[in-house]
Design a protein that fits this description.
single chain; Glutaredoxin; 37% helix; GLR_AS; electron transfer activity
Length: 78
């Protein structure tokens, strides 16, 4: 399994959905809260993204809670 990183912010309902989805799938991930760490916020900004949740799975960048994109990134052979 590729390294999974989820950029989040406080009180973000879509961030909670993404984290819950990944947990339900048994997928470990690193959470990077952009409100708690300015470096994480800068990383998101440097990618040209202005919103969270942003999930990085290998070469895939997934904005928001998009099950189709998650399934594609998590099951590339399917």
């Amino acid at each position: 399994m590729e390294n999974v990183i989820v950029y989040t912010s406080n009180n973000c309902p879509h961030c909670k959905q993404v984290k819950s989805f990944l947990c339900d799938q048994g997928i470990e991930f690193e959470e990077r809260n952009i409100e708690k760490n300015d470096e994480f916020a800068q990383q998101v900004w440097d990618m040209g993204v202005r919103a969270v949740p942003l999930t990085i799975i290998g070469e895939h960048r997934i904005l928001g809670m998009n099950k189709l994109q998650f399934n594609k990134a998590l099951n590339p052979e399917a």
